[in-house]
Design a protein that fits this description.
The structure holds two protein chains of two kinds.
Chain A (H helix, E strand, L loop, with lengths): L14 E12 L2 E7 L2 E3 L3 E5 L6 H8 L7 E6 L2 E2 L5 H7 L1 E3 L12 H10 L19 H10 L15 H14 L4 E5 L7 H14 L4 E5 L3 H7 L2 E6 L2 E6 L1 H5 L2 H8 L1 H9 L2
Parallel strand pairs in A: 4-9, 4-10, 7-8, 8-9
Antiparallel strand pairs in A: 1-2, 1-3, 1-5, 5-6, 10-11
Helix pairs in contact in A: 3-4, 3-5, 4-5, 5-6, 9-10
Chain B lengths: L5 H14 L6 H21 L10 H16 L5 H23 L4 H21 L16 E2 L2 E2 L3 H23 L2 H11 L1 H6 L4 H27 L9 H14 L6 H20 L2 H16 L3 H13 L6
Antiparallel strand pairs in B: 1-2
Helix pairs in contact in B: 2-6, 2-9, 2-10, 2-11, 3-4, 3-5, 3-9, 4-5, 4-9, 6-9, 7-9, 10-11, 10-13
The chains are: A alpha/beta, B mainly alpha.
Amino acid sequence: MSGHNPTAAGSAPEFILETSGLVKEFRGFVAVNGVDLKIRKGHIHALIGPNGAGKTTCFNLLTKFLEPTRGSIHFKGVDITREAPQKIARMGVIRSFQISAVFPHLTVRENIRIALQRRLGTSFHFWKTERSLDKLDDKAMEILALVGLETYARMVAVELPYGRKRALEIATTLALEPEMMLLDEPTQGMGHEDVDKVTQLIKKVSENRTILMVEHNMKVVSGICDAITVLARGSILAQGDYASVSTNPAVIEAYMGTEAAHQATGGH
Amino acid sequence: MNPQRLPYGYLAAVALLLVAPTLVYPVLLMKIMCFAVFACAFNLLLGYTGLLSFGHAAFLGSAAYLTGHALKVWELPTLAGLVIGTLGAGALGWVVGTLAIRRQGIYFAMSTLALAQLMFFIFLQSEFTGGEDGLQSVPRGSLFGISLSSDTTLYYLVLAVSVSAFWLIHRSIHSPFGQILKAIRENEARAISLGYDVNKYKLLAFVLSAAVSGLAGALKTLVFTFATLSDAHWHTSGEVVLMTLLGGVGTVFGPVVGAAVIVTLQNELADKVGSMVTVIMGFIFAACVMAFRRGLVGEIIALYKRMIGEKVQ
């Protein structure tokens, strides 16, 4: 996995998303403290860390759902630190949410169409019939087929089983053909079978794009991620591939306490 | 809903309305239609965008005054008066909307209420509104050379305008724009993350709703030939909430039914029970919220769906 490098050999490493000195304070509480995150183009990058480490805050900062207190964020070399969240989305950085983010009372196909219709440029046209959106149906079905939801197209999203909702969410994100996807705990609360399905799906859609995901499930992380950043108490504890991060004593300590760290590294 | 069957239902309703003035007092029917348009406009916001405005009377009232003033003082033709009232309310909607949509939920509702109270105070103090006396004896004028002084003639104008307004709201709901409104209602954060500038969509919905509410107010001035403070009073803002909830929020036809029920009840009960009518309205509201939250039309649709074996959420 670590050998996977889409950039041309010899050229400078290409980072699609970079933060420097990112800080977020909530009334004196520092949730994110000086994070320098560098995400390489084409990677599946995992953001892990114990509860309360600042992963989701970090995510919200990157997608501009929160305003950073200090620091800067660059996407493809462009400073996006002060842009509005919808602008970030239009630049090609699409996020998902911890709690599944579908439009519950729209059908599965309509969920996809919401994502697709922005490109038609008619979203303010209140005088047009919604039948003008029917031309998006083929494309919507194509995307649904990609995630194996084509048979559910006419079902109302709220009735989907949990794992399928997450798949629909990924499909909606895919519909925007994002350069970069940010997935907040995509396998959270799933059974084994669904975890495997969604993991495979993420792997499948990672072609030609960059993915940053918050994930607790180490099996998923070790299986598909090219790079890992470990956060603890708002700061970066370790960065690297799975092999180097998983044997890092500081990481083991943060996850299991000092005792376990001694035992785990004692053999080396 | 069966989309093929709907137009026939609407056609039947319009046909019924065409002969209705021979059976029912036309002024009552016109009042119902005015409030039905008002409630439909309100429902575009509450039912389809998820925004609870508690100051919609400001738009009804300002248009009522504007139209009255245009017809009486400026002596403009009837149609121009209607247009001025509608556009004026739309412009006011733009101002109120711009200020209010910066806030969410209850704060949004409170902002609209505060701004509407501000408008009420302006109307109370201004000279052109006639203050507590209101703007009296507004001429109805004529349309295409036909005098509108007869209630029956005016009825058909009000019917035509109301049906057009209903169609406009219906079309907005079922348009590409309406789809985005539903998405915002369902999950605002997700709509943002898909790249939609949700505040612009909310603002356009707010302006549309205010303009159509204004149209209702303008028609109301024509019907009663006066505009008074009660049009802009917060009671009226509350009444439109009641009409929409009773009929069925988020259903296309619900607000029409709600408006018809409330206006008819008020009309029938006013001379029988006097001020007790407020208490009765309160009971209806409580019963509606506790027992049938989907509203009259909402419950019928749910029942129909259950009968044909579809799942109801």
